[in-house]
């Protein structure tokens, strides 16, 4: 009777990977990415926050004749369709500040996120995210602070 060769149930472990002669195992070299995207996001965020502070201070001082305040509230009511020139121009300034501030602030926020995620100016992107997120808070605080200071 002839014997059938049996496969070894425990084969030997494969040999360790040996690179061919002259082959060097090094990580791939990445070319540095441009920081332009992060820098632009940061500059837009700075323009938005500075512009919002200036416009908010102007609005707060100019809105005193149109302000109302109660025991627990403080605000002002502007009507864009007003026939009075001062009230109408103040309403337009208010609309421009909040409209442009919102659009440019969202642009800076999104561009900062993209710059941070893609490592194209990560530090500037993080700074743009922080400034763009703080912009509405600062603008609102300056407007009410300026209005309150002008009322007293």
What does this structure look like?
The protein is mainly alpha-helical and about 150 residues long. The protein has three helices and two strands; from the N terminus they run H-E-E-H-H. A two-stranded antiparallel sheet has the order 1-2. A hairpin with a 4-residue loop joins strand 1 (about 65-70) and strand 2. The longest helix is centred in the middle third of the chain and has 33 residues, at about 85-115. The mean pLDDT is about 80.
DSSP summary, beta strand count: 2
H/E element order: HEEHH
Main structural class: mainly alpha
| Major sheet summary line | 2 strands, antiparallel
Radius of gyration from the alpha-carbon trace, in angstroms: 31 Å
Determine the number of helices (DSSP H or I, runs of at least 4 residues): 3
Morphology: elongated
Range of helix content: 55-70%
What order do the helices and strands come in, and which of them pair?
Elements: H1 36-62, E1 67-69, E2 74-76, H2 85-117, H3 122-151
Helix pairs in contact: 1-2, 1-3, 2-3
